[in-house]
Amino acid sequence: MADSLYTWQPIPPNQMRYARACMVCSIIMVQSRFRSEGCPNCPFLDLKGSPEAVESCTSSVFEGTMAIASPRTSWVARWNRIDNYVPGTYAIQVMGSLPEDVKQAMEDDGHVYIP
Question: What are the tens digits of pLDDT across the range 98-109?
Fold first, then answer.
């Protein structure tokens, strides 16, 4: 699922007010990065270039963070079911829910949504 061109960049402290978490994989990035690159773990959400999709599929309300540098070897990543994702900062819990049409499209494409 991970994109080999993705490079993990920590969010500078003065940019945290723009941080959002993907409601599917919980990766945390700034809003402008979601708009310009999309979600590196969830390309099927089509966030790239779509402010509306970024707004509806990510949330600015999340609790806790974990930085995962080596998802394949990290027991924390395995425990949180993110061991197949790209290295990055992930939210422990994301508040909000995906729109029903996005959930249905994910199901139709064979993706499993675990809220």
Answer: 999 999 988 888
Q: pTM of this prediction?
A: 0.87
Bridge partners, residue 66, by sequence: 90
- For residue 3, the model assigns a pLDDT of 47
DSSP 10: P
Parallel, antiparallel, or unpaired for β 19-22 and 62-68? unpaired
Helix (H, G, I), strand (E, B) or coil at 44: helix
Q: CA 24 to CA 19: how far, in whole Å?
A: 15
90/28 Cα distance (integer angstroms):
5
- Return the CATH fold of 13-108: Herpes Virus-1 (3.30.40)
